[in-house]
Amino acid sequence: MLDARNHGDNGACYIARRNCSISPQGLIGSFTVIATVSLLIGIGFASHGAWMVLPFAGIELVTLAIAFVCYARHAADYERISVGAGEIEVEVCNGDCVRCHLFNRAWVRLIVRDAPSATRLALRSRGQELEIGRHLDGADRQKLAHELGRWLRLTA
Amino acid sequence: MSSIAHDPAHGHGHDDHAHHPTGIMRWIATTNHKDIGTLYLWFSFIMFLSGGVMALTIRAELFQPGLQIVQPEFFNQLTTMHGLVMVFGAIMPAFVGFANWQIPLMIGAPDMAFARMNNWSFWLLPVAAILLIGSFFAPGGASAAGWTLYAPLSVQMGMGMDMLIFAVHIMGASSIMGAINIVTTILNMRAPGMTLMKMPLFCWTWLITAYLLIAVMPVLAGAVTMLLTDRHFGTSFFNAAGGGDPVLYQHVFWFFGHPEVYIMILPAFGIISQIIPTFARKPLFGYASMVYATASIAILSFIVWAHHMFTTGMPAAGQLFFMYATMLIAVPTGVKVFNWIATMWKGSLTFETPMLFAVGFIFVFTIGGFTGLICAITPIDVQIQDTYYVVAHFHYVLVAGSLFALFAGAYYWIPKWTGHMYDEGLGKLHFWCSMVFFNVTFFPMHFLGLAGMPRRIPDYAVQFTDFNAIASVGAFGFGFSQLIFLVIVLKCIKGGKKAAARVWDSADGLEWTVPSPAPYHTFETAPVVK
Amino acid sequence: MFLASSAYATDSRYNLQTPVTQIAQQVYDLHTIMMVVCLVIFVAVFGVMFYSIYAHRKSKGAVAAQWHENTTVEVLWTIIPVFILLGMAWPATKTVLAMKDTSNSDITIKATGYQWKWGYDYLKGEGEGIRLVSNLSTPRDQIDGGKQSERSQSSYLLEVDDPLVVPVGKKIRILTTANDVIHAWWVPAFAVKQDAIPGFIRDTWFRADKEGIYRGNCAELCGKDHGFMPIEVHVVSAEKYATWVAERKKVAAAVAEDPSKKYTLAELKAKGQKAYDANCVACHQASGKGLAPAFPALDGSKIATGPIAEHVGIVLNGKAGTAMAAWKQLSDTEIAAVVTFERNNWGNAVGDMVQPSDIKAARGGAQLAASPMPALAKEAPTESATTAASDALPAKLYFRVGKAALPADAMDAVKAVAEFLAAKPEAKVDITGYTDQSGSLDKNLELAKERAKAVRDALAGAGIAEDRIHMKKPEAVTGGGDNREARRVEINPAS
Fold it and tell me: Record's PROSITE patterns (chain B) (predicted)?
């Protein structure tokens, strides 16, 4: 998903988010439902003497929780590309790590690679390269490339 | 100097699509959902044939009264292993295979959520299968306690029983990992715009099935672990002499076992719900009510387990509760059947093989549904419990239900998988042979059960001879008919008419937007669903 | 194939057997109603489907409509089935309640499932005290590869040597239990099927309206010969039943064995052969070679050629965790005979023997009973892994995990000890409580004490003066890995 915000003529901000079809609340909710059901079943059997169901239910819920967390860690990943007067700032959030990359607007180049399956984008400056738009689908990547290209041409 | 560089050559260097290993390592190390789906499907077909050989041995012994081919102890091993191999080796992995192939394609995801775990959950299965089949060669042979493994009979068994318990644990772990993968994939990775209520029904039924698996697999694991400790570590969960209760085992087992039945049929409902609209050229009737019906069946499956235990001597109140709850399942199941027929009504029907199997499914599965309703009536169930009537009933829902739906699905999607059309003539032959021989095999079993022939017996009273002979002939016919399917699949892999992207002219869904055969990687950037 | 003559001339081969009880008639009618309702729905629903298949084909130029929902229709086909189901549930409920009403029976019979035969004890009503065992009477060689023509009689696999006999028109209550694994007692013509569960008693009933011979099978998988343990019930007139009871009593009195009688080796071997053929042959085989590995060979086995006390012990008490069940239900003479037979048949030639009186002693507890055979003096019932059902000291009572309440199944042992103490006014007993090793030591000692107290209270309740009961120090950790064995209270003669 691409959010674009224009700040007049000299800047803009683009936020590219991952496609994530369930909200964090939704995921927690669905885990709660399954955990409640599993634990109720386990406790029910334990109260009738068959306590060995409970540990297996526990192991399984832990596995499910780990799986959900592993996945959800990257659910909120985003790239924020702020185009300022003299520079371009790219904030990349990957899991729980947020990094900022600063490029001089005058020196940076946008690289567009046309692979058969999809177009990939990167910013390059002074030998440094940063891939951008990883979370976007084809149409949005085209749009981002077009927009960034416009800003860079304005500088040039 | 332009600030935008087009760099196509470099782009190919980054294209890692071609870098998968070849040969056997490709299959062992693969994390690709399509490869893993294929592995699941071949594995389940091999297990289907192994279980089938056991079934044919059983039917050969039962061709006439007297003991001719196998001895009673081995006969019991065969019935036990036939059940376990078919349930855990054939039907369940086959549906997981379909899930692996189709769910990412249908929701527009690049792969399953946990590709590495997906690989593990498949490769656990052959290990379990070797343990299971290998138990025939253990001292004392395989377990002969029936697929339900009732204590205390299962406590008496030899080493084969321990191998079986470990096999069940491994298969359980595999199912759990598969289910977690499917739930995570469906919840998180749907393409933008594909809300839950726009999801293809096959994905819906699998989502609910995966939830059922997660809820009940620990129960099975607990049940067999308690058997193991009762056998070797001096516990008395199910041993009356030590203060335990043999009936407790049945409660635990069937609390798993009944939802398990729906685990094996709900994805079948999903497949049928994809196929009928395609060949009726008309949208599925009552999509929302289909979803609600599936969910109701799943919820009801938790409160009907004791209908397998009407003869254990539970109080009248218990019998009545479980009878009413069981009868209630007829309502959502009925809704599904009505919806399918309403979808066909005023459609523009054609009958290619997938449609033949789907219509055959509705027809024959409904017979199994009605006998299920008859079995739900406690007083009648007391008469027919543990007779061939029950054998007929659950083969009508599992063979004509799950298996026919699997065939329907295989014919429906195999052009997408291989890129070639299957041989339509052979497909139709396969359908008609299966349909006819299935009924020849299992329909007479209703009469046997009503007249009083118990199940799981290697020899029977002479008045049951005729129907048993007919059933045995039918079983061999049915068994050999499945070789037609093998031929069709092999032919289809090797070549045939090129399949278009949209294989069936009115097929709806994202899987038909990618070329046939589906490329190794699909939907790396998500499609947008309107 | 259809021409083969039906053995059950009166029974339809396509339907339930002809009912001979009111319940069976209700079940039959219920099934008929259900079939009719289901058939009507089936024809209606599939009539629609097949019409659609016929009329709405693309090849006939049908053009697909595009509607895909209709709330009215959907609600209707949800509600209408509910009402149909209610209509079905009503008569079914009445039958369930009738089936479960086992009160006011005329005769009560306990049916015990063994691997693989049925034992019957007439507990109450006319014929009280009669015991009989029904073994399959179809000859084994007819089953194994016999000619098809030999199997043509209608009772093939459904016939027994000693059938159950009940009077017509009387309410018969059947209590079911089992000795080893779960069996199920089933006679289709009565619509009676009740699981027989080891360690538990369940009940069912029937009132047969018509004299005749009715046959059924064990209906729960119970091991190798599950298919070979039929049930045969003779329903006879009241007069015939009275005659049968009288004859049974007379025969029983005539063959009543003198428990102290001493037999010769030859006599015991002859009796042993009979007992072996009736009880042991299915597993250990006529050759004594068994069916390895589940059913070990007796010919040359360590048990059958080792100390006789161990041999007797295993026959009496079975072997936990294996298919070898306890055979306590056999008479002393039968056990003495079968043990002697096994030790002196096939390649076995130990040359020793055991008398019925020794078995009696072995059952009761060897320390208290004088044994004339030196080999038996060592027979130690403390090794027994079964519940404390023996009728004297020392006794072991097993408790549930973490519980100090005396389980119901231990009351027999308490009663037996109380009777013993009542008979010997000078005798005193020691009571020691034990627990298994799980949990904290302090808690376990407390639990062991509570368990011992529960036994003391039970004995006091049975009328034993408290000064005859000596409470020993409780012990927490015993029994090695066998936790069930560990959770017990022992009653020993006072030291």
Answer: COX1, COX1_CUB
